[in-house]
């Protein structure tokens, strides 16, 4: 059986061109002994491992270790940059997609790190704003309210203000309005809207599922139902909290401070 090269050689007596010294230079005694014993225990006694083969394997292991170390370093740098970017957003108003694909907007309250990725916690209230896309809204101002039904199907006694939005009514630009941050409810939500004057009665626009938190309105005044809202306003809807990933942020507005 071929002899294993010595690892106890005095470094001052080894030539810089010695391949054995180069291959083993970064390996400590315990690593080498563990590797050597494993190789000797599993080798074919009729075809023992050559010294050159042992050195080649050790060299490959060192290269793999160096690559892993570089990857870990780069990941640590990237995480540090992402944490810094996320921290700078605290107090700012952002728009982002949630993991379920919904659009959320609100003020960043805090951040957490999950699986090496920063998550932003947004606190937001219900809102209405112009949406780019198809619709039939005329130029004007629209106000929205929502009535929430419980799991038993009974409606709450008050209607809640969602928001007000103004559109220009230009073709394919401002002919729709998006409602954001609607509450998740056990029962259905009924959405009511004024006509383009922004005054007068609220008429039933649509009824949506309790788990939907966004809605796009592109209905002309003539498409509103004749069912008018009779409930009194209960003020604005309570704030919601969204969790979004930093990479899913699409808009950043000035700090809310």
Can you offer a commentary on this structure?
The protein is an alpha+beta fold and 257 residues long. The chain has helices spanning 19-24, 29-42, 51-88, and strands at residues 92-97, 103-114, 117-124, 127-131, 140-148, 159-167, 176-180, 189-193, 203-208, 215-217, 233-236, 240-245, 249-255. It has a 5-stranded antiparallel β-sheet with strand order 12-3-2-1-13. It is elongated and about 95 Å long. The model is unreliable at 1-16 and 20-24 (pLDDT under 50).
Give the assembly state of these chains: single chain
**First-last Cα distance:** 76 Å
Q: How many beta-strand elements?
A: 13
Gyration radius from CA atoms, angstroms:
33 Å
Share of helix, binned: 10-25%
Biggest sheet: strand arrangement: 12-3-2-1-13
Structural class: alpha+beta
Overall residue-averaged pLDDT value = 78
Number of helices: 3
Overall geometry: elongated
Brief overview, please?
The chain has 257 residues and is an alpha+beta fold. The chain has 3 helices and 13 strands; from the N terminus they run αααβββββββββββββ.
Give structural attributes.
23% helix, five-stranded mixed β-sheet, 257 residues, five-stranded antiparallel β-sheet, alpha+beta, 3 helices, disordered N terminus, 33% strand
Topology:
Blueprint (H helix, E strand, L loop, with lengths): L18 H6 L4 H14 L8 H38 L3 E6 L5 E12 L2 E8 L2 E5 L8 E9 L10 E9 L8 E5 L8 E5 L9 E6 L6 E3 L15 E4 L3 E6 L3 E7 L2
Parallel strand pairs: 6-11
Antiparallel strand pairs: 1-2, 1-13, 2-3, 3-12, 4-7, 5-6, 5-8, 7-10, 8-9
């Amino acid at each position: 059986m071929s002899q294993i090269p010595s690892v106890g050689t005095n470094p001052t007596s080894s030539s810089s061109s010695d391949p054995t010294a180069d291959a083993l230079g970064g390996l400590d005694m315990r690593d080498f002994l563990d590797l050597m014993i494993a190789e000797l225990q599993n080798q074919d006694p009729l075809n023992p491992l050559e010294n050159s083969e042992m050195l080649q394997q050790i060299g490959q292991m060192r290269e793999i270790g160096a690559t892993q170390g570089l990857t870990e370093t780069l990941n640590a740098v990237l995480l540090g940059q992402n944490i810094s970017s996320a921290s700078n957003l605290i107090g700012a108003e952002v728009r982002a997609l949630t993991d379920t694909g919904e659009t959320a907007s609100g003020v960043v309250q805090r951040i957490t790190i999950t699986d090496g990725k920063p998550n932003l916690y947004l606190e937001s209230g219900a809102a209405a704003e112009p949406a780019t896309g198809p619709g039939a809204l005329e130029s004007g101002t629209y106000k929205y309210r929502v009535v929430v039904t419980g799991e038993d199907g009974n409606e709450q006694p008050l209607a809640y203000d969602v928001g007000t939005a103004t559109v220009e009514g230009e073709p394919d630009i401002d002919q729709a309005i998006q409602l954001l941050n609607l509450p998740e409810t056990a029962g259905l939500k009924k959405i009511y809207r004024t006509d383009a004057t922004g005054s007068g009665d609220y008429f039933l626009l649509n009824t949506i599922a309790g788990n939907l938190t966004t809605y796009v309105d592109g209905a002309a005044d003539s498409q509103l139902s004749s069912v008018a809202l009779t409930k009194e306003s209960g003020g604005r809807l309570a704030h919601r909290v969204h969790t979004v990933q930093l990479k899913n942020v699409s808009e950043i507005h000035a700090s809310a401070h």
